[in-house]
Give the backbone structure.
Amino acid sequence: MSRDHILSSLRTSRASSTQWLVGEASRAPRDIPPHVLPPAERLADQFSAELRSLSGTVYRVADDAGAVAQIGVILAEKGASQVIAWDIGQIGLGELAQLLAERGITIARADIRGDGRKARLQVLESTTVGISGVEAGIAESGSLLLRHGRGRPRTASLLAPYHIAVIRSGQLVRGLGEALAQARARHGSDIFSDTSNLTLITGPSRTADIEMTLSLGIHGPQEIHVVLIG
């Protein structure tokens, strides 16, 4: 069958079905299901449910003190003596520095650029926990949006097997489009002006082989612990 004949058949089929398709589209409901766009006050519930369905762990705490206490529990469970972390000011928990100091937990230097890159990575390899803040949390998928840059190293969320992310309820949005719009409003239209990338994290790192055997932590953290404040 020639190309022209195939295209002609497709045009004829489209012309004959257009009116029916338009009619079906006009009768389709326009209301968005509540589980897709829940009320703003339920974004934390949706975000938590979506992340937990992806093997992530969410801790809902009332305030900064609760967040620091919960981080302390996680660090103790993981036996952390060193962490890879964003600058404390970028995380936004002033008392976190005191907690780390009291526990004797050091913050590893996360700069791996330059000639010493290989040696620095070898030093960081034994670090079990990374701690970061986030740019936004996406409720419809349970995803975290991280914007990297000075004081916000990528290694904090990518290298260690256990990632602790701190987020406030006011940082939750419904979808990716809203998260990016919010980032542009905060940092300007060129959101990459002082950073090389944005990272989207949707649950722990996962992969599957040809037999569909799921494995966690192959290409990144095997556990993600989100401390949600408010």
